[in-house]
Design a protein that fits this description.
The chain is α+β, with helices and mostly antiparallel strands. 21% of the residues lie in helices and 42% in strands.
């Protein structure tokens, strides 16, 4: 079992960022590798935040990964071969049976109905 944990921070400007934390103090940064299409991703950086305990992981997203499919990035500790985490880029239209798309559509319709109801209440009072 690894003593490392990974928490996502943000994804913006073609960069995914996360925080790697260690349960015990380390004298060197942890070895972290990001795999994409069964190959290590180049340009991954790890910067110390709390000496010996926390590091920020910065993963540049290659332009080839932005396409009409789901692209999975696997974050591993190569010393132990344990998976620390992963993130997925989804491109293209969502599948017809995607529950998240249905929920977003329902939210949009509910917002529209709320605005119409408030307008109706103002006009009739």
């Amino acid at each position: 079992m690894t003593d490392l944990t990974l928490a996502p921070i943000r994804f913006e400007n073609a960069r995914w960022e996360g925080r790697v934390s260690s349960r015990k103090k380390r004298s060197t940064p942890p070895a972290v590798q990001v795999m994409w299409q069964d190959a290590p991703l180049k340009g991954v950086a790890i910067e110390m935040v709390t000496p010996g305990l926390d590091w920020d992981l910065v993963v540049p997203i290659p332009s080839e990964a932005v396409c009409e499919s789901a692209e999975v990035f696997l974050i591993i500790n190569p010393e132990t071969n344990q998976t620390l985490g992963h993130f997925t880029l989804n491109g293209g239209p969502p599948p017809a049976d995607d529950l998240r798309a249905e929920v977003e559509l329902l939210r949009a319709e509910l917002d529209m109905l709320k605005r119409a109801f408030r307008r109706h209440c103002l006009e009739t009072s």
